[in-house]
Amino acid sequence: MHKTVVLYPQPADPDHFRDYYVTNHLPLVRKWPGLLAWRYSFDVAAAEGEAPYFAVFEGDFADAAALAAARASPQGQRLAADVVNYATGGVVVIDYPVHDGTS
After folding, report:
1. What is the DSSP letter of 25?
2. In CATH, which of 3.30.930.10, 2.60.120.10, 3.30.70.100, 3.40.50.720 is domain 12-54+61-86?
3. What is the tens place of the pLDDT at every residue in 11-29?
4. Is 20 exposed, middle or buried (0-12, 13-18, 19+ CB in 10 A)?
5. I want to staple 40 with a disulfide (CB 3.0 to 4.6 A). Which of 9, 57, 81, 91 is the partner?
6. Residue 18: how many CA atoms within 13 Å on its side-chain side?
């Protein structure tokens, strides 16, 4: 499995961010080809001190190639272009292969 994580610093207007994200951006996420599962939160907390991020998104793909294809797709390009409409604090995008742990 391959995961993409989007970290959102504090936006200028948190209410607009939340409303736009749920009403407009997440419907685009649902159309992202190859996306196996996804989750998000506006309740980001730090173990100590103030959290550096306002919101987080996680998306799961079969592998890095599936994520690359999703990003290159018309839906992926629309999704990326939409970020400027709500993420006034910027965005940090990371991705990585996920390895299962053993006890």
Report:
1. I
2. 3.30.70.100
3. 999 999 999 999 999 999 9
4. middle
5. 57
6. 7
**Cα–Cα separations (whole angstroms), residue 101 to 52, 60, 81:** 27, 17, 35
Phi, psi of 60 (to 5 degrees): -110, 135
Residue for token digits 């980001």?
44
Q: Where are the domains of the chain?
A: 12-54+61-86
- CA-nearest of 44, 42, 27 to 82 is 27
Question: Which tens digits make up the pLDDT trace of 30-73?
Answer: 999 999 999 999 999 999 999 999 999 999 999 999 999 999 99
Q: Residue 80 and residue 82: Cα distance in Å, rounded? A: 5
